[in-house]
Specification:
Methane Monooxygenase Hydroxylase, Chain G, domain 1; 56% helix; rod-shaped; 6 helices; 317 residues; 14% strand; seven-stranded mixed sheet
Length: 317
Amino acid sequence: MIEIYYKNNEVQTYESVNEIEYQADSIFSIRFIGFHHSDLETIAQKFDLDLTSFSKKEDIEISSHYIESNTQLSLNFTIPSYSANTYFEEKDIYILIKNNIVFTFLSPDIEESLNQLTQYIYNLKSTSFESYHQLFLFQIGVISDYYADIVELISKKIKDLFQKTLQSKQFKENDLDYIAALKFNNLLIRESLSEFQKILLLLKKSSKYNDTSFDKINEEIDDLTVIADYLRYNFNRLDDLSGNINSKIELEQNKIFKILTIITVCISLPTLIVGIYGMNFKYMPELQWVLGYPLIILLLILSFIFPLIYFKRKKWF
């Protein structure tokens, strides 16, 4: 789907590039939602765009994610996406600015998440844009809010897990796997956030933006710095939580080993007695006793019970 935001604040949607009558003077923004890479050549020709940044998304150099020329500005970065699974998924976002138009390429799930967040935070009916600069900076702000939203989601899950840990006495490997998943999600957000911050720092140095834009970008950078602090805090809490669960698991294991030790000691004395009377000596006076068998049975029982009483008094169990 293609969504076009016109200068008269009208929004139109199209299914194909060929349906669009391209008039740059009347357009603020064009969003390509769920685009196919096979369509990029057609899009590049239709709107006279340089899409080389699409082939550089795997590069780690920031220069591959922020490309500015005399005619075009290209930004590309990944952003964690909500998933039905435990783990987040990385989704690509491409933003290009040319001929005073903001071109955005993103996946449908990211588009849906950003739209839901936008409708929740902003009153879109009373929101209008006087320039592509305002619309572009608005998008930057929505992405920053999205980062804050997913970090808040991770923080809530960590808090809920902490409460569960405090109330529960039994733990499974799934709990540690869940903590590992939260750490992985937190790591994805941190990497994506760091990349986005670097892009904004480079954008702030661009000569194409006025003082108002400069102030807005600074505000977003400050907000992202606060979010990054929360991410570090989440890592610390996850480490504490992992250590807490491991400690409780070790305590449970120690209790099990203690019980096994008690049982071993209690059994060892009767085993020793049985071993002695199981020897094939010719002269064993107890073998001639009339009450020898019941006495040995009683001795076996007492040799098992006395150690239990002793360990009970020592509060081993």
